[in-house]
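Sequence in, structure out. First:
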Amino acid sequence: MNILVVGLGLIGASYARGLKNKGHYIYGVDINYETINYALRNNIVDEAALDAKDFIPKSDLIIIGLYPFNILAFLNKYHNLFNDKQIITDVCGVKRCFVEEAKKISKPAKYISHHPMAGREKVGIEYSDPTIFKKANFLIVNDDVNDKGIEVLREIAKDLEFNRISVISPEKHDKMIGFTSQLTHAIAVALVNSDTEDDTINFIGDSYRDLTRIAKINKDLWSELFFSNKDYLINELDNFVTELEKIRTALDTNDEELLKEQFVSAKLIREKMEK
């Protein structure tokens, strides 16, 4: 396929690298001239430019790797160039705030959103690496599970060596991501910010290191993600506080059985995820 990747950041450039290695012809677009040069020098893409207008008519698949609020702007800018043989998708971490509008703007092209459940705390094309997708989950976000265009996304997921491929609605996606992704980032940020000591670095072990890795957060991107999904995220935060209060109550009342119940419950739930 001829594939256009819009936005050559960590995820976009990782897609470009991996799909180019599988024989697809890759066009790359980014607003940063240095990023374009880096992509060409390092053979990440076959062709690259600051503007997408010359690449869109030649592309079978367009993958948008932009922040949530920029996706509709891109589609509005180029909607006259889309054709009925194309599939347009995005890798955004929230869906309800734009997907229905994106489908309308993209016509006659078919718009099918998706979300790769992979990433790094680093940002930028220089950190791109398609191995981050290996064995990761791949979420196709579309109300019609029988849509023939879904097979194109399944193909690129297999090319990039994703593991589980699921087809879900935008609502289901945002609810689950509120828990598995956004809540975990919120916990990591709160944990780091709750530090009251000056020499914490001397006491860090694997547990703190693993829990707080994602606290090295991209403030602009994650602010958009949090606010775009705040209803589900607030609900997950409330649920988390309720569970945390159970541990506090057990300690405050010297209730060893209650504390052990929390440990056993968490252990069993976590072990089921490893099967």
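Second:
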Amino acid sequence: MRKTTFILPVIVVAAIAALSSIFIVDEREKALVLQFGRVVSVKEEPGLGFKIPLIQEVVRYDDRILSRDIDPLEVTPLDDRRLVVDAFARYRIIDVEQFRQAVGVGGIAFAEDRLDSILRAQTREILGSVASNDILSTDRAALMLRIRNGAVSQTSTLGVEIVDVRLKRTDLPRQNLEATFARMRAEREREAADERARGNEAAQRVRAQADRTQVEIVSEARREAEIIRGEADAKRNAIFATAFGADPEFFEFYRSLNAYRVALRGENSTMVLSPDSEFFNYLRSDTGVEPAPAQ
């Protein structure tokens, strides 16, 4: 009984010691075994690992691609047009031992602070070397690659690899928005005024050409009308002359009838003529000859 009482605590202590000497590394992480703050073992593959209880400790780091949002920063491109840039980066720990030596007990938080300072400096340097139109255009993909490549060389001492850098938003500072909008409105109004002026000029040319064409067409029509009227008058006079030569008496009768039709219309209320006027020859005689006076 006394022997069992002594052995049982020993077994319990041994079991606890055995369990505390075993650790499990997940496939999403890497582990370091530290002894008094010094790295004695690196466990990068998933599975079981061993350490000395109470003397050694295990520090785990994420092996996945991590994301880090960079606080919005203000940059000044070559054209002095200030912009507020919002970016983020993706990175991963590629050398956990070097990472531990670089950041110490600060861990991920200390490393991300270092990444922020490096990425902000690179962003200001790269975007400050180009014009704002290049940042706002499709060329920004090349600029992001330049920022990433510049940051890679500086973060290699941390045991970290920068996978990608992206510019999420590029805006004007709030205090410059109104001035920029006013300048844009003025530019659009100037372009609209130019378009209206060109349109009015084109309209004036069209109207002038139309007026000229109208005058030419009317003049040509009048000329042709006068020619046709003259030819018609000539034919009419020729017909009258032929008729007069063929039968002068009938021609005189025809002319008298036309004179009666024109003179004796309904609107003529009064006509004063001498009774012996030649106008009434065909009214007094069917031959148009003045009858002889009675003997």
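Remark: The chain has four domains: 2-62, 66-171, 180-224, 233-264.
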